[in-house]
Amino acid sequence: MNDQSAKLSIVGIWGILREFAFIVAGAAALFGAAGTLRWPRGWIYIALAALYQAVYVSMLLKINPQLLNERGNLNWKETKPHDRYFTVFYPLLAFAALVVSGLDAVRYGWSHVPFVAVYPAAVVFICASFVALWAYACNSYFILTHRNDAVASQRVCTAGPYRYVRHPAYLAGIATAICYPFLTGSLVSAVPMLSIILLLVVRTRFEDMALQEELQGYEEYARETRYRLLPHVW
């Protein structure tokens, strides 16, 4: 699937537009709930999210446009049942976190997180984003959902961060979820974020089980790379 000569298709363009539309809609939810645009922490979070998305698209346009095409294809019919649940609940929880953050940190002030917490949280966010981007750069089969029609053409990736854990991008997602309440200043937003972390852990388990059954060479890879998400833990 790693084809630098491939061109971005309509499906790929739609996928890119969809991701940036989520950021715009997320900003509307965040600042709408806050009731003001004068919220530096909100802008910091949106800037970090937009920067990550811009680097992700630019990187794949250069090294693997075909992966953008594949990730733009949300094939619901072929998506495995466990990933259908993830596809539905993940964006709902993410938007819930945005709304709760605006209500908590600005409009009603239910909790308080010192602004200084933004700095280490931003560092964690950037480091986690690097891990996710590294995974995309190394794994040319990193499609949007776990699909029945894609398993036959896939190959096991053992390069880059996949040498250390079997699902590095999910680890990155968990790390960004942990730092989110400190970026926005809303401890209450930890509730939907903890739900997202649980969702990612469950997705990891189901996906890993399916890959060991269906993907040639993955069972051997799992024996050599023992940990799914966190080295020496799980």
Task: Explain this structure.
By secondary structure, the protein is mainly α. The protein has one domain (about 10-225): Four Helix Bundle (Hemerythrin (Met), subunit A) (Up-down Bundle), CATH 1.20.120.1630. The protein is built from eight helices and no strands. Helix 6 (about 170-185) packs antiparallel against helix 7. The chain is globular. About 30% of the residues are buried. The mean pLDDT is about 90.
Features:
single chain; 234 residues; mainly alpha
**Remind me, CATH topology?**
Four Helix Bundle (Hemerythrin (Met), subunit A)
Kindly report how far apart the N and C termini lie: 29 Å
Instruction: Kindly give the count of domains.
Output: 1
Low-confidence stretches: none
The radius of gyration computed from the alpha-carbon positions, rounded to a whole number of angstroms, is 18 Å
- Residue fraction in strands: under 5%
Total beta-strand segments: 0
Structural class, by secondary structure, is mainly alpha
Shape: globular
CATH architecture: Up-down Bundle
